[in-house]
Specification:
This protein is mainly α. It has helices at about 1-25, 30-40, 60-90, 95-115, 125-140. The protein has one domain (about 1-140). About 70% of the residues lie in helices and about 0% in strands. Helix 1 (about 1-25) runs antiparallel to helix 3 (about 60-90), helix 3 packs antiparallel against helix 4 and helix 4 (about 95-115) packs antiparallel against helix 5 (about 125-140). The longest helix is centred in the middle third of the chain and has 31 residues, at about 60-90. The radius of gyration is 19 Å and the shape is elongated. The chain starts with a helix and ends in a 9-residue tail after the last helix. The model has no long low-confidence stretch (mean pLDDT about 85).
Length: about 150
Amino acid sequence: MIPRWAKIALVAGAAFFYTLIVFNNLTDPDSNYQFVRHVLRMDTTFPGNRGMWRAINAPWIHVAFYVGIIAWEFVTTVLLWWGALRMLRARCAAAGEFQVAARLAQTGLAVSLLMWQSPAWNGQQAAARNFAVVALVMLIVGQRETEEAA
């Protein structure tokens, strides 16, 4: 039963993390919008960058990207909370039933995983950490159980 509680706690922890991200993006939109804007404009990359042709300078596209990111994070949040709740309800069920309940959480984790060359506006390290944590949770939640473990 402890592995199930651990899986539920890990999914709930990821859901809580995404809840904080969405809350932050909705209550302090300019902070993260500036990040998105600078990344798309590529205005802080190294001098002589030959990739500047792909910079996006249209403000409406910056806003569209930012809104899309928040929507993606919101969907991830809902899927993770819903999955955690389904897993919690199935915690005493047979192994197969618990695995079925965990599929929604796995979907939320996969959506999270599907979610730049500037020293000032670089999100690669934070994104890599988030990817690694979510991938690890997804592997743990996806482990099959035997009937004896249930």
